[in-house]
Amino acid sequence: MTTAPDAAPVLTVEDLTVVYEVDEPVTAVRGADLTLHRGEILGLAGESGCGKTTLAYAVNRLHRPPARIASGRITFHDKSGEDVDVLALEDAALRAFRWDRLSMVFQGAMNALNPVATIRAQLADTLRAHRPRMSRKEIRDRSEDVLRRVGVDPGRLGSYPHQLSGGMRQRVMIAMAMLLEPQIMIMDEPTTALDVVVQRDILREIVRLRDELDFAVVFITHDLPLLLEISDRIAVMLEGEIVELDTAERLYRQAAHPYTRKLLGSFPSLSGERGAFIRTGIDETDAGETGTGETGTDGAAASESDPTEERA
Ligand SMILES: Nc1ncnc2c1ncn2[C@@H]1O[C@H](COP(=O)(O)OP(=O)(O)O)[C@@H](O)[C@H]1O
Ligand SMILES: [Mg+2]
Q: 222 or 290: whose pLDDT is higher?
């Protein structure tokens, strides 16, 4: 089973500061330090307005004026061993870097699909832009494969976005982000707009895909209970600063920062008996050392039917 925090880093963010240069400048990210390990799911938590999206955009170099990176270094550690200075990338290299090595599912992304193009056309466009040598058959095969992986029937390739449910559209966006097999996927509130059942299905899918394909995930949400279930480690942001970063387990049991404790306390579901881990069943093998006794006997959410633990 992945013990991702021990794996090699895939992304290092050092002392990142992002300022919105408006009348009264807003320092939305302040001296952020962050290491993401290969294959790790890193949760980024914090209430609305604390700077999560700004941080994600900066890591992608997708920030636009008035946002400005005032300081910091962002290094991508490619699996080939090459280190990429993300802030120094020029246009063409930057375009190749995005989607290919690091992709992003944007907040509200499911409404960002092109309404007048089929899913097939949108996947093919991305593949043609980044993989100009792919044949039509390869494009078709890859498009079908990626949809299947996120649990959408490839028969939907001919559909337009409005013909799909919200959950399906969000799955398509995740498929899009996976299309080029990036080493990192940043997901900004990917399931916030969905109902709880659909949200859980998709989260389970993301954890399973990570186990299969071993990409790293930065999962952003204000929903701390959800992060506790799916993350290897969690960073807590407060007013632009990362005030705590620890394993999900330690953060839950012995948070160091008062704000983290306050945040934990603000979710009634965490004060009582904790709900079953989404990863229960996937994660049982390494749950032993910390003991899952307290997570209780609630087997409801543990009906992980997918036999992916063969990879353990
Ligand atoms: N275009 C902008 N101009 C000025 N301030 C902005 C802009 N976008 C975001 N901010 C401010 O930056 C801070 C962080 O916002 P954001 O990164 O969207 O937070 P989060 O994703 O955690 O909700 C907020 O105080 C927000 O008001
Ligand atoms: Mg946001």
A: 222
